[in-house]
Amino acid sequence: MHRRRFFAVLGAAITAARTPCAQQQAIPVIGYLGSTSPGPSAAVLAALRQGLGETGWVEGRNLTIEYRWMEGRSDRLPALVADLVGRNVDVIVAGGPLPALALKSASSTIPIVFNVGMDPVGAGLVASFAHPGGNLTGVSIMSRELMTSVTSSSIQPRS
After folding, report:
1. How far is residue 114's CA from residue 140's CA, in Å, rounded to a whole number?
2. Which of 16, 19, 46, 114 would give a disulfide with 100, using CB separation of 3.0 to 4.6 Å?
3. What's the count of helices (H) and strands (E) in the chain, helices before strands?
């Protein structure tokens, strides 16, 4: 369910970011900023390509993806963010909370779609779940927060 919602949001962002051209429409470009490297992200990238394909977007045919990798090094983040923002891509996918926060600070106009395992409202990524505001939207899988909530509550058996 979360994956379908994520790709629906991404597809909508690509469509919204496209501006009509008089003669020839350029192929849209997605920027992807991952916090790790390509190897550990292979399953996520396969799901990204599959989800885009389900909505008619195929990398290399009617879509280009510019990949940038932090490789676990936060010192690389400013240069990678500046590179993607400077390329004026149509939409950026943030693969993790650090890229999402850095991209939010770097651009208020490029649509940014995130998939994070944290509370995006509490982290300052969006204003609220119902009305994210700004140029960021995405999906949060807060399994850790939910597990903490469940284990810290005192669930009593029925008598």
Report:
1. 8
2. 114
3. 5, 5
CB atoms within 10 A of CB 145: 14
Contacts of 152 (CB under 8 A, 6+ apart): none
Range 58-63, long-range pairs (CB < 8 A, 24+ positions): 62/27, 62/28, 63/14, 63/27, 63/28, 63/29, 63/30
Domains delineated in the chain: 2-16+26-142 (3.40.50.2300)
Q: Can you tell me the distance from the alpha carbon of 82 to that of 89, in angstroms, rounded to the nearest whole number? A: 12
- Model pLDDT, residue 23: 52
DSSP β-bridge partners for residue 32 = 67, 93
- The pLDDT averaged over each successive group of 10 residues in the chain (159 residues) is 59 58 74 93 91 94 96 95 95 92 94 86 86 86 54 49
For residue 30, the SS3 value is strand
